[in-house]
Amino acid sequence: MVVEAHQLFLPKPPFFSPSFPSPPPHFSSFLFHPSSFSLALFHSDSSISLYPSFSLSSSFPPPQTTVTPPISAATFLLLRNPNPNTLFLISSPISGGSSVLLRFYILNTARKSFTLAKVVCNHSDLKFDESKLGVVFRVSHGVSVKLVGDVNVFALYSISNGKIWVFAVKYLGGEVVKLMKCAVIDCSLPVFSISVSFGYLILGEDNGVRVYPLRPLVKGRVKKDKGVGKKSLNGGLEKDKMEIKKLPLRNGMNHGINGVNAEIYETELKFPSNVVLNERIESRTESAKLRSVRLRQDSREGIANFVAFKNKDDISESMKIPAKSAKAISIQGLSSTKFLILDSEGNLHLLFLATSVHGSETPYHMKQLSHNMKVRKLAVLPDSSTRSQTVWISDALHTVHMIAVTDVDAPVNQTDSKDPAEKLVQTSVVQAIFSSEKVQEIAALSVNTILLLGQGSMFAYAIS
Predict the structure, then answer these.
(1) What is the separation, in whole angstroms, between the first and last Cα of the chain?
(2) Neighbouring residues of 326: CB distance < 8 A, sequence distance ≥ 6
(3) CA distances (Å), origin 25, targets 21, 38, 377
(4) CA distances from 125 to 99, 136, 324 (A)
(5) 360: region left, alpha or beta (phi > 0 left; psi from -120 to 50 alpha)
(6) Sign of the C-alpha dihedral, residues 161, 76, 211, 265?
(7) In which residue ranges of the chain is pLDDT below 70?
(8) Contact indicator for 246, 255 with CB cutoff of 8 Å
(9) How far is CA 185 from CA 73, 205, 263, 276, 298, in A?
(10) Are strands 293-296 and 176-186 parallel, antiparallel or unpaired?
């Protein structure tokens, strides 16, 4: 194999002044969006440089879009309704941290740049503020928040509030998007990482992960009759009569709510049928669609399934209970049925998800990967077309390994063997890369190409 290394010369941060006595802020991390090849470079002063179409050239051009601080979290989203587009979302504290400001930057392919989007939202605690160039979310920002996004959906986690909000975004055309708050999860247990990918919301917890199917969180089916409310004598509309019925969900699950369980049911709306449908009734029908699901993280009667790194049998075999369990600190999707989990002890685990759900007893399954490195950084490029999948791992020092995960089709309902070696998914190191600088961030650009951020320098490695 041949390894080609390229150093990428980064531009000066956008707010650097040669006359300023202190050294300019450096690049501390980055986000790469493989669907659009967009790149966000994070400066140490909390500003961001956005590149809509990253290429492996020797030097970066000046960014056409810069995002001003303060910035507490950021993520990319891919919009697929009705037309594909890329969205970059950031959060910031405002009003002394009493609220959260969400700013949406949409990719303008014609201009080859990101521009601020106008946001339409129908919730009482969400309001687009043109003066602040974003949506004011009337919840406390707190110490920190985390954003993760995927296709049409993103999640916001506030540690101080102990809540996770799930939102859906719809592209309305031009530079306008619609924001819909879909679900709220009350967190009673610590959450160390979050992933929204392949139709699942996955929370990293102590000794494992908690898996939520996204469909019942994001939307049900809303039926409308052609008729609407009566016209009153003064030309207005009388109060609309709405009938709500519990209907079976598409995946066969239906869970009631008693203040604990998920409020998940499909809504059937019926209005009197003697007046033609108009915009006011349509807007009320839309509001009914946006009713948020609310559930508790630790509810055993909801839609979530907890999958442990070590089950009770493993603990009993070891003859002792460990004083401190591993935390799931990073979650990466390999495919729609397989996720890679990095724990706080530097171990990798492969999570298998069932392709279909029958009731609440979903046969999720976890196996540990064999590797000889304490992993601190992880990068994958999802690919369901091959049996062997490539994973990039690093010790966050000077070493990056390209490994091949070969046993990714293990059945999810198999019985665990008593032999610990048989519980491991075998991997092999395909290539090793040694960096002159400590590794801060890695991202897979392709199956054989990786982007690496050192301590002030960026490198691209291609293996052929």
Answers:
(1) 6
(2) 206, 207, 309, 343, 344, 345, 347
(3) 12, 22, 23
(4) 10, 8, 39
(5) alpha
(6) positive
(7) 11-25, 58-59, 82, 220-290, 301, 312-323, 355-363, 384-387, 407-423
(8) no
(9) 19, 14, 11, 39, 10
(10) parallel
Q: In the 8-state DSSP scheme, what is residue 288?
A: H
What six digits make up the tokens of 332?
């990466």
Count CA atoms closer than 13 A to 232's CA, side-chain side: 6
Check if the beta carbon of residue 49 is closer than 8 Å to that of residue 63: yes
What are the φ and ψ backbone dihedral angles of 314, each rounded to 5 degrees?
A: -65, -40
Question: What kind and span of H or E run contains 136?
Answer: strand 134-137
CA angle 452, 453, 457 (to 5 degrees): 115
> CA 383 to CA 333: how far, in whole Å?
9
The residues, ordered by sequence, that sit 6+ positions from 242 with a Cβ below 8 Å of its Cβ are: 269, 270, 271, 288
Strand 99-108 versus strand 134-137 pairing type: antiparallel
The answer, yes or no, to whether the previous bond of 52 is cis (omega within 30 of 0) is no
pLDDT for res 323? 56
| Residue that is written with structure tokens 């610590």 in the block | 190
Phi, psi of 216 (to 5 degrees): -70, -20
User: Under DSSP, is residue 294 helix (H, G, I), strand (E, B) or coil?
Assistant: strand
DSSP symbol at 296: E
Q: Which residue intervals of 394-433 are DSSP H helices?
A: none
* Domain locations along the chain: 31-183, 220-292
Q: Which residue has the tokens 């609220």?
A: 99
Length of the chain as a residue count: 464
Residues β-bridged to residue 392 = 379, 402
Say what the pLDDT of residue 53 is: 84
